[in-house]
Design goal:
The chain is of the alpha/beta class and 243 residues long. The chain contains 9 helices and 6 strands, in the order ααβαββαβααβαβαα. The chain has a 6-stranded mixed β-sheet, sandwiched between helices. A hairpin with a 2-residue loop joins β2 and β3. It is globular. Bound molecules: guanosine-5'-triphosphate. Guanosine-5'-triphosphate binds next to α3. One of its GO terms (cellular component) is lysosomal membrane. Its cofactor is Mg(2+). It catalyses: GTP + H2O = GDP + phosphate + H(+). It is found in: Cytoplasmic vesicle, Autophagosome; Golgi apparatus membrane; Lysosome membrane; Recycling endosome membrane.
Length: 243
């Protein structure tokens, strides 16, 4: 079959093409359509957990779609989004699992922990109980997640500074007690530190991949979504995992 016909047929019905007498593609269009998308160098899964209403969905949607919903529905079970990103010259296909904060979904959500290479544990800096729930979430991590998973604690809703009840120091102290856990505060609403959460987590995950460790690209790290800083100042340097 004529390869040009193949291209037209696959593209048929899309975006305002005329019904009869298909115009020939220009050389440039033809070339553009033939190029398949570059396959991902790495496919990674990360999971977002934390109590109800802390902003897990909002963080995910701010990162994947740059949107924020003032009154979104509670997640039922598990939802996910995919975002491709460039990091250190590698194409990363990131699958983000957004879990329900309600306890009654724990039996469903726990099934997603095992394959996650990174875990984002979120609390709300304006809600004491979401911080007090953290040990409960750590138990879930200990029980269901891989020991190799990178951990990041996020105090969300930083834009609500006047309603803050959990100090930054409390968040830092909690994270410091968990071997290898990083910490930052963020605002999904104001889009503060959201890209950094994912970039930092993926960067840490890549550092653990055996192939990557010997790769000289490590010396020239570039986080493509954010030209600078490479390591956000909010995040402390990694600590070795030990108890
Ligand atoms: N002010 C402010 N509100 C936020 C922020 N992030 C989320 N919210 C609001 O908090 C509420 C809950 O947000 P969600 O993203 O649905 O929270 P969730 O953790 O996914 O909730 P569950 O699915 O029930 O577990 C919504 O009304 C959001 O608009 C933030 O950074 N600042």
């Amino acid at each position: 079959m004529d390869s040009r016909y193949e291209i037209l047929r696959r593209g048929g019905g899309f975006s305002g093409g005329s019904a009869g007498g298909s115009p020939a593609l220009t050389g440039a269009q033809s070339r553009r359509r033939k190029i398949p998308p570059r396959p991902a160098d790495h496919k990674l899964q990360v999971i977002i957990i934390g109590s109800r209403g802390v902003g897990k969905t909002s963080i995910m949607e701010r990162f994947t779609d740059d949107t924020f919903c003032e009154a979104c529905k509670s997640t039922v079970g598990v939802d996910f989004k995919i975002k491709s990103m460039e990091l250190r010259g590698k194409k990363i296909r990131l699958q983000i699992w957004d879990t329900a904060g309600q306890e009654r979904f724990n039996s469903i959500t726990s099934a997603y922990y095992r394959s996650a290479k990174g875990i984002i544990l979120v609390y709300d800096i304006t809600k004491q109980e979401t911080f007090e729930d953290l040990p409960k979430w750590m138990k879930m991590i200990d029980k269901y997640a891989s020991e190799e998973a990178e951990l990041l604690l996020v105090g969300n809703k930083l834009d609500c500074e006047t309603d803050r009840v959990i100090t930054r120091h409390q968040g830092e102290r909690f994270a410091a007690r968990i071997a290898g856990m990083r910490f930052c505060e963020a605002s999904a609403k104001d889009n503060f530190n959201v890209d950094e959460i994912f970039l930092k987590l993926v960067n840490d995950i890549l550092n653990k991949l055996p192939m990557e460790a010997s790769n000289s690209e490590l010396c020239n790290s570039i986080l493509s979504l954010q030209p600078e800083p490479e390591v956000p100042p909010e995040l402390p340097p990694p600590r070795p995992r030990c108890c």
